[in-house]
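Reviewers of the previous submission asked for a worked example of the structure-prediction workflow described in the proposal, so we include one complete record here. The input consisted solely of the amino acid sequence. No template or homolog information was supplied to the procedure at any stage.
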Amino acid sequence: MQLGNVMRQHYADKAPELLDAVAGDKDNYIMRRDPQSDYCVKFDSGLCGILKQYDDNFLGDACYFYPRATRALGETITMTAALSCPEVARLALFDQDAFTENTLEIPRLPTSLGDYLPEGLSNAQALATHRAFLQKALDTSVTPERALSQIFAASESLQNISIASWADAAPFYLQNADSNLGICEASSTDSLYLLQSLCGLIVAAKKVGNGRLMQVVSDIEQALHVQIRLDNLAIAPLPDSNYAISQVIADWQNGLQDTYRPILRNYLAAQISLALFPFAGFGNTLCERIAIIGIRMATIKLAIMCACNLNKKAIYDQDVVRIISSLSRFLDHLSDPEFSLKIYGETGWLGKNRLRGVLGDL
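From that input alone, the workflow returned the following structure tokens.
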């Protein structure tokens, strides 16, 4: 967890005994990790030892603000929260008022606060643009898969016009996005490639020791009747794998998808909110950013489908939270989009038609 120069100096001035918990140098001070547990050395019986002994004024920005994400659009400061926190996931996925916008005063802002206001837009125009996409994510008149496809199509259009026109153009493009959707190109191997892509990212990030994350992977393997080797990412289907995959899909289409549409809709809204879309997020262009969100949503959807298949019925809300928070804790905190873009590009999912296919926007 990043500490920052200001907090490191605060330790030196007010609690020099805490300097033993600091690693790195002035360009990148971080909290030192325990080599055995891989947790912060101040992690104490499930709680933060610094918070127990001192107070939150001794927490670096990363710890103080998590799971909140704070960004600036010019003079407007936005704050949302990450689904990697199980309690945030529970609230965001199941609370009807989760995406109600509130105005409040807070005692502290991050030392380094990114300003994502592009040249050509006022802060009010930028916020209106973001709200248009968030409103589309929450649109109950379409499936969450279709809403994401519409956001992708609108993003393609926005990329071709001046940024100064985005505030007026975004609602129009979103309203008329169906005319630019193209053909849905699904593949029978999409579920296997979703699993393989997830495992590729896990191996590259050296997170194979994450028990909760690997349990999600194991459940997908079990439901699809496949085994994946983490040393070379080869997938070995069992003899009845094709039937198992078709059964997972059939169970979903015969009632379960209606149960989980509100969950996926709120997941999409949470991702749009976290990314302050279209101004920030994981990716270099608007289309890359929404494609990555879409592929993550397809991965979440597959994990829930497989969990329901193993359970022989809809899973408990707490299991939904466990799955989504575990995957979000990994996917939403990746540091570099390039490897993800490489993997997803090889499958064709960065394109509109294949993205619709892997989402199941039929």
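DSSP finds 14 helices and eight strands in the chain. We consider this example representative of the routine output the project will generate in years two and three.
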